[in-house]
Amino acid sequence: MQSECEPCRMPRCGWGAVLAMLLLSATPAAAQDLLNDTISFADFQLNLRPYVTLPSSNDSIVNMTTRSGDSSLFVTTEEGDIFTVPTGAGGTASATKWFDVAAAVQSATGRSVFGNSSQRGLQSVAFHPDFDNEGAAGYGKLYTTYLESRPGNTSAHHYLGDSTYGNTGADGVLAEWTYDHDSGGVSSQSHRELFRVQMPVFDHPIKQAAFNPYAQPGDDDYGLLYLTHGDSNTKHSPNDDPQHLGNALGKMIRINPLQDGGSPYSIPGSNPFADSSDPDVLQEVYAYGFRNPHTFSFDRDASGAVHVLVGDIGRNNMEEVNLVLPGHNYGWTEREGTFVHDQAPDNSGGEGYFTGVSPLPANEATLGYSYPVAQYDHDAPVGDRSSGNSIASGFVIQNAAEPRLNNLFLFTDFSSKTNGSAARDGELFFSDFDEMLSAVTDLSPDDPSRDEPGELTQATVGKLRLALDHDNNPGTPAQVYDGFIDLLNSSRSDVRIGRGPQGEVYFSSKRNGVIYLATDTLPLAGDFNRDGQVDAADYTVWRDTLGDAGYLLAADADLNGVVDQADYAVWRENYGAPSNASAGPSAAPEPAAALLALAAVAASCPMTRWGRRPRC
């Protein structure tokens, strides 16, 4: 039963209005605004500075990550290399090639990493949480996802699922490598292939692999590898592979990647389909119904619970951020955002690529789909072949020196600006994490409060302007841009988002090979309660968490994974320090142009900062 909108909820979607918009969009040239929304800029900006530039021959950056026990940023390029970048540099840093994956694959297998651009080549690297724990099974282990030339004898390899091969010449591969802590390198002879995935079409292939960095030894999630795979299909995915549980296409996979006797890996007993005896169901599947789940993150809420957020690239209508829950179906190819995806016929041969979307039916609660916690539409003309929108999701900011950034989930759009589209490529979006977690994204016929489509809610989406310290000189004015397209002076942004060892945020672009540091996402040393000042209240946080171990702990100032006496020393040394975050867009100062005491700012906006609605 649909209830009246509470003040703290997003406005209910008017399905009659949506239908009217769809009818008005019947003419191919007419743009449609499916959500009837306006995404507004916040009253403050995000401050950036160029941090490192990769070599021009090896600068197609697709992933940035960290590993426990190391303060470096590990940067993955489609050309097949992993670079390390030191964090904490006051000026610009230098990138050092750490592991040539492409050369190692060639040496170990005689086959090449396939391609080096446009979703090909190396895609990601993930370090086992026991990477530095000598004697543990995961000691020195790292995992890479990439596309590799298809072997002549496929019977000698483990193919995950029953997806078909479309003569693409390559497979998606998950491989393990072992780092030698004594020699300080990765040997190509340590290569171990875990599985391969057949691709019907050379699009939306294997994507990101990552471990839950918050999981501790003894936790069910410790040492389990998450991996996303796109639908590997034409734009409308006529095979409906994401809805079939017998393949890896359009899925999130979860496994224990360590060798298990004669098996290349094992399946966690807590996987949602682990107990299935159906040969058409992969026990490795964690969630399904995705189109192109390009990027995902692990983010912890105020209670300590960890959530998985994935950015799923839509077809021609909607871009989604989904809260991933085990066993849930996120709808593609039947749903796109909170709409019915009007699928083209399977034998269309590519015709009718865009046939539009429709409102959800009245019986939607009986169909079992899950919906986004945040979404934005393309505002694309009906019949447009490509509207040029592709989401790249980021992370929840949790320890920034700029208090207004904390608890915001950042995401952007990285595809190409095209005629008639909303030109959202390169814009930097955000949503409030609490709003995302409280969004109504599942319907139930047995719950009157959420048994109709109009009772679905999503978090508000806002935008941030970018203030670039282009010359790394705090004495010159920052250059302010509405998004990365303008900042890069390019028709395409190709932006990705990474998180550093202190929780700080980095942005990269394949257009120029530059990694930018968001300076006001860096924590203020000793400011353990993240209020913009180092004072007695921060001592209380340190005292109450002394001895805690884990990832991105508020009072772990020296990043050793434990709150200890060394962190107290950092607090004492910085006692009385104010934040150096930017005051706002009107003066447009660079972050280090002046040291600002933020007590007044904190007093004026803690309950009403942009992007968070008052609670009921």
Question: Could you please describe the fold and organization of this structure?
Answer:
The strands form six sheets. Strands 1, 22, 23, 24, 25, 26, 27, 28 and 29 form a nine-stranded mixed sheet that branches. The chain has one domain (15-521): Neuraminidase (6 Propeller), CATH 2.120.10. It has helices at residues 15-24, 101-109, 433-438, 484-488, 536-545, 565-574, 599-604, and strands spanning 41-53, 61-67, 70-77, 81-85, 96-100, 122-127, 141-149, 170-180, 185-186, 192-197, 206-211, 225-229, 251-255, 285-288, 293-300, 306-312, 318-324, 335-336, 339-341, 357-358, 374-377, 391-396, 408-413, 428-432, 462-468, 479-481, 495-499, 505-509, 514-518. It is mainly β and 616 residues long.
What is the assigned CATH homologous superfamily? TolB, C-terminal domain
Large-scale geometry? globular
Count of discrete structural domains: 1
Assign the CATH class: Mainly Beta
Helical amount: under 10%
CATH architecture: 6 Propeller
Query: How far apart lie the N and C ends?
Result: 21 Å
Number of discrete helical segments: 7
What is the CATH topology assignment? Neuraminidase
* Range of strand content: 25-35%
- Poorly predicted spans: 1-29, 349-353, 581-616
- Write down the overall mean pLDDT: 87
Radius of gyration: 24 Å
How does the helix and strand content classify structurally? mainly beta
**Major sheet attributes:** 9 strands, mixed
Q: Count the strands?
A: 29
Question: What is shown here, in short?
Answer:
It contains 7 helices and 29 strands.
